[in-house]
Amino acid sequence: MNDWLSLGLGSVAGALVSEGLKLLISEAKKVIAFKSVSKELASTMESLLPVIKQIESMQDGVELEDLKVTIVKALVVVKECSLVKDWNLRKRSKYTKEVEEINRKMLKFCQVQLQLLLLRNQLKSMPSMEGINSYFQIINEKLDLLSVVSSPSPVFTKLCSVPKLNMNLVGLDWPLMDLKKRLLDDSVVNLVVYGPPGCGKTTLVTQLCDDQDIKRVFKKIFFCVMSSTLNFRAIVQNLLQDNGYGAITFDDDSQAETGLRELLEELTEHGPVLLVLDDVWQGSEFFLRKFQIDLPGYKTLVTSRSDFSSLWSTYHLQPLKDEDARSLLVQWASPPQHISVDDEYEDLLQKVLKRCNGFPLVIEVVGISLRGKALYLWKGQVESWSEGKTILSNPHPTVLQRLQPSFNALEPHLKECFLVVGSFLEDQKIWASLILDIWVELFGRGSSSSTNVYMKYLNDLASQNLLKIVPLGTNEHEDSFYSELLVTQHDILRELAIYQSELEPILERKKLNLEILEDNYPDWCVNLCQPINARLLSIFTDDLFSSRWVELDFPNVEALILNLSSLDYALPSFITGIKKLKVLTITNHGFYPARLTNFSCLSSLPNLKRIRLEKVSVTLLDIPQLQLGSLKKLSLVMCSFGDVFYETEKIDLSKALPSLQEIEIDYCYDLNELPYWVSEVVSLKTLSITNCNKLSTLPEAIGNLSKLEMLRLRSCINLSELPEATERLSNLRFLDISHCLGLRKLPQEIGKLQKLKKISMRKCPGCKLPDSVRNLENLVVKCDEETGFLWERLKRKMRNLRVQEEEETEQNLNLFQMF
């Protein structure tokens, strides 16, 4: 035992229990490698500390000796935790369990022994007991929160879960039976399901993972979606995190291979494990070999467009046979309207099937486009195919050619919108709000009212199966809250969009995708002296990119999408020349928030209206210093801001951000407080702060936002109250405090907000309603049954009060496989 620990334990042994608790809290917060469990331990002890101080002031503390012993043991474990290397999985697992056991002992002390001490002391000092009971109530509330929120970052959980199917399978019964037989064969360890794109490989394997026989054999099944840019370390990190190891950093692939083997050795002790790698690209043999581990009870299942028979066993999935293809088409496309001749309908069906060539994806897309249409429209669709001149080439001419008519049938405005979606990465789960921001600025007039129009366009594309919209558990979309909607797109449809965009020469394209691997640029970028005509520019760089930018000229770009994977990222200097830029979105696909540099280059953009930063490390004070006179919307998602905001100098917000109307802050877990300048943006109409667990209060200065119409504080679980200055928000129309579990009351004079017409407050179990709410007329309250009871009692005293009790959809966290 080292000198520090000896000194620390000696001081605890001779000191008050409260002093030992303080030392333990301090040391627990320093243990980075065990961040999740150590923070939980520190949180429990911080709630316990005031009660222990009170007890020590009332007696000699003898009865706290058991707790003192636990604290001494905890100090030993916490100090040993600080010496564990991040990648040492065995020690991490061992000490994680020890810290969790200590935390359970602390909670047991709170629930049993502490209550006995309180009852005994109640006979001695009734006044003091009132104070202790108040602290004890805080502990119970904390325990409730700990039982509801097991992790400070729920969005990162279960990244490798098997997705759910929401369709009836046609034509896959026999392949499913055959594939299951192959997988359960003891001689087959690694199996590749391959076939052309759009033939149903992912659907088949997903259904297989949900088969009862498969789930009975394999005790753990992991499902990892691949991409053209493979990142072995990130996949292993996700697998470890799914199994409770938290965020682990590997210096190289060799360490990650060791980590994967140790994880699998631990898991297979409890039963067989199946790892699914979905959509592995051609030329990935070296990547696949990293998962080829000789371990009893461990199998790997891969889907790919390529045949890896030289490496592993393979199963070739063919397109649907004629009978199955016909059944699937009939399922998607109901018969034409007013049809009277069965032979004519059958002839049309056969012509459509011939065009679809047995590919389920093509059948689905075409079938949806013909559903319920008149007979002449069916005939027109078939005739247009026979006259079509387009022959789509690489990489998949057959499938892409059969998708082309679905694009041709779109209205011109939907074609433009569809092409934008192709500017995002393959298999990326795209926030609907991000797509809408780009559409509004590129094709609309940039007004917030246009957002709902373009949301209809998004639904139009989804209804034609050219993309999918996935809700994450909220039904507030009527309030223009699209931050809990995801958009996904089959990679073949993405390729269709890219193909359409690349029909013109590079310099003349309206939408341009630029991929930079390491520091290698496409040939056309090198020594380019001419300007590029694109309006939309999408740039992807991998984790080996060193921010060595070449000088390029984009005078007409209005929307810039930057996708990055490196930990440090410098914005390209050529941004200063993009004077027409209206929308900038920066998305980090790495494991940790990326540090941005050269941020000041944005200050030279006179037309920049929307900035969206995702999973990056920024200082919120940098925003007003950019002096962006046209900025209307700022979105910050999963960003890291560091510690408390220290303001060195005040900035005149009327000049720095005179046009800012909307601020969105979502899943920013280290947001302790709002910077001062947010309360001085008098032009602000919407302030949305959601899923920010550390935010406990709002500043009183928020009352300065006289034009604010919407205040959303959804899922800020530690927010305890709203400032009384909220009563000065005279234009507030909508207040959303749903899932604010720690909120205890509304402002006393909330009744002064005469323009407030809607409150959403689901899952606010302890929130008290002040008497002044009776002054709110024509109010709509959206709530759950428990909260609804509070409002129902006021119906007789409130004019035109409407209480809408709604059951909320459970969040689908499996869809956050985007990191």
From TrEMBL:
PROSITE patterns: RPW8. Residues 1-148 form the RPW8 domain. This is Probable disease resistance protein At5g66910 isoform X1. Keywords: Plant defense, Repeat. Belongs to the disease resistance NB-LRR family.
